User: What shape does this take?
Amino acid sequence: MSVLFSENRNDQFKIERLYEQYRSLMYSEAYKILQDRRLAEDAVQQSFIKIINNLHKIDENNCPRTRNYMVIICVNVAKTIYNRSLYLNKHDRTIENIDADTADVCNDPLDILVDKDSVNQITRAIESLSAIYRDAILLKYAYGYSREEISKLLDCPEETVKKRLARARKMLSNVLEKEGHI
Assistant: This one.
């Protein structure tokens, strides 16, 4: 492991010893959580970055306290990676997927063309919104989340979500009306 962050030779030596002594243990703990070799390796590397930034908290290399500290950091990093991947997998629907998910209920080609055109216009209008409004609209209408769930996902009060949704709907209406689609 190349140590670019250490300021002196003693720190560099300490980091190398910690890495050699605990990397296998940290990897196995991360792998138990992530069940993926590459993600477990990422967790170990991210953990060592955190450890390097907090090297002053480690007094001895070979003691239970140091071992626990190293494992706790790695487990927390692995859980963060796991939760992030769960969130991303759960919300892997993009605007393009929403278009693909709209079913062609009728068989009339003209109706299908009009519906597809409407979806494209709405999609462009949604994409024109700023991120805070676009996220709220997509979470509510594309993914079906409640305002309470959206507030937890976006880490903001439910009242804020309510206002963002109202503003986003008004902005969408204005954009679509301005373009002559309403």
Summary: Residues 1-6, 103-107 have pLDDT under 50 and may be disordered.
